[in-house]
Amino acid sequence: MVKKLLSHILFFFFLVTVQAQNKILPSQSVLDNSNHELYVSFSEVIHFDHADYLRILLTAIPEMEVINEEFHPQFEKGIAITDEQLNFMENEAVRISKSGQSVRNLRNILKIRIDNPTNERLLDLSAKLEKLTQVKYCSLLSSTPIQPPGDIAPVTTNYEPSQTYLLSNPGVNMTYAWGMGLTGAGIRIRDVEYGFNKNHEELVDVNATLAAGMTISSSATTEFTEHGTAVFGIVYANKGAYGVSGMAYGAQEMVQFPEWQEIGYNRMNAVSQAIANSVAGDVIIYEMQTGGQSGNYVPAEFNAAIWDLTKAATDAGIIIVAAAGNGNQNLDAAYYASYRDRGDSGAIIVGAGSPNVNHQKLSYSTYGNRVDVQGWGSNVRSSGYGDYSIFGGDFNQQYTDFSGTSSATPIVASCVVVLQSYYHGLTGNYLTGIQMRDLLKVTGISQGPGGHIGPLPDMQAAIQQINVMLSTPENLMVVFNVFPNPVKDMFTISVQEQVMVTAKVEVSNALGQKVYSAAIVSGNNEVSLADFQSGLYFVKVIDGEKVAVKKIIRQ
Questions:
Q1: Which of 194, 265, 327, 355 could be cross-linked to 379 through a Cys-Cys bond (beta carbons 3.0 to 4.6 Å apart)?
Q2: pLDDT by residue (tens digit) across 107-143?
């Protein structure tokens, strides 16, 4: 994932090759000259019931004594998620996915520090550790980042007409959803990458923030940080009369969890914190890739530790939308057998397709059956960089034509956010990542020539499919009307069927915040909006298991 096709890089440790027993051996990796950190996943037969990890391992694994004498390793907790949050995630995973095993696996991932941690010594240690039956895998993660793949005067051109990916085929038809008042209300978005410009005119007035307690490294050049500005622009830019419009501009918030902070570069920490600060229904965007065969780029979850984190998150109901990577790699090839054998992480993997009705794989996109859907991989107008236009020489008024799986991924993520908001508004529940992925694939526009990157999302077809899903006999929607609409002070809800005594109405604002709730009866019910601000609101009528939502405008 990248800014331009010549960049094609967001991450660069060259991981692993494939070995029997589903292990990925760093000892057989091709590593660049950057520094790396070593993470080890131990099997569940090891119980880390206190923080003296070395003593536990020496007691449980006699062979560790030889390794300890040679390397003098220091062990520490590998996943920076509190025990309380892991307990919550495990309970959610059991509730949603019927198993908490994926979350429990995170408790047995340790980080190892050794003296003189050269790549050669880390590879040697990894090879010896992976001979132990109690070790599931070792993962080497780079500790060094590289180049990643209202209006202010003067007046900025309105670029929304140039955002043709918003329109129907060859676009995703987000304008159809907007016409229904669907903009992602109530959904929280997280983005994992390097940085973004909060002061850009498209982002300064929206709820786009850096995660609390995290920083963006002062060593990160604009080639790093403007990547995030472009991603934020596609998803969350201000919907106004200038510049671009974010596809899910009505979402509750968009928060970035940077990989590269002032304290150093740490992908594991960024992903862990994004997950730790998410709950069921939230959407995390992986604007990351990693090295596969011969260093060519593949999904970040090719790394086993990132895969474990991803699986735990999706089992707990968090949706993860991840770039396939710009390595033109066939994930169905023999080299990736071990990756496939892990199973389904639950993430939605996004390839890069052409911005025309052919929807063919672009030359650089990684592909294969594990790639689920595609987004535009070129000609995606967004904020940042300034290689398309700069107004008044102002850094905060720069625009670009974004590309790569970097641009494809936020397009798909925006569709996920808006569809999740619609489904939640109708049902009070959330789609899981696998359910959302199936919805996008079943209703999407078929791809054209090239390796498999899946269909392009079709918002109209997906919304209509949700309506079909909810129109089964056991879950009919409540039939009601609202008038007048737009509303000045009072409006009427007319319920056209007999409802239970427990039936109620809820009114939410465009951010998904509930602002009114009351009982409702059959016939006409009056509601006052006299004390409410002007804007878009959603009226939800709940009658037992039956739910329906309509939008209204307060003048």
A1: 355
A2: 999 999 999 999 999 999 999 999 999 999 999 998 8
Tokens at residue 71, please?
Answer: 């390397």
Among residues 235, 228, 233, 200, which one has the least CA distance to residue 214? 228
- Token pair 């949603």 is found at 96
CA distance 265 to 275: 18
pLDDT tens for each residue of 28-62: 344 566 789 999 999 999 999 899 999 999 999 99
Please say whether the beta carbons of 313 and 278 come within 8 A. yes
Beta strands in 117-220 (DSSP E): 135-142, 188-193, 208-210
Strand partners, 380: 402
Place of tokens 């397009």: 411
Q: How far is residue 158 from each of residues 234, 386, 396, 425, 525, measured CA to CA in Å? A: 14, 15, 15, 31, 42
**CA gap 14, 75 in Å, rounded:** 23
Q: What is the 3-state secondary structure (H, E, C) of 498-515?
A: CCCCCCEEEEEECCCCEE
Q: What is the fold of 474-554?
A: Immunoglobulin-like (2.60.40)
Domain positions in the chain are 17-142, 474-554
Distances (CA, A) of 160 to 37, 58, 130, 392, 417: 44, 62, 53, 20, 20
Q: In this model, does residue 493 exceed pLDDT 60?
A: yes
Predicted confidence at residue 144, as pLDDT, reads 78
**DSSP letter at 67?**
H
What's the Cα-to-Cα distance from 459 to each of 75, 123, 170, 414, 549, rounded to whole Å?
48, 47, 12, 10, 18
In angstroms, rounded to a whole number, what is the distance separating the alpha carbons of residues 3 and 233?
13
Record the pTM. Answer: 0.81
- Residues 241/247/249/250 CA torsion (nearest 10 deg): 130
Q: In what order do the strands lie in the sheet with 319-323?
A: 208-210, 253-258, 188-193, 283-286, 319-323, 348-353, 373-376
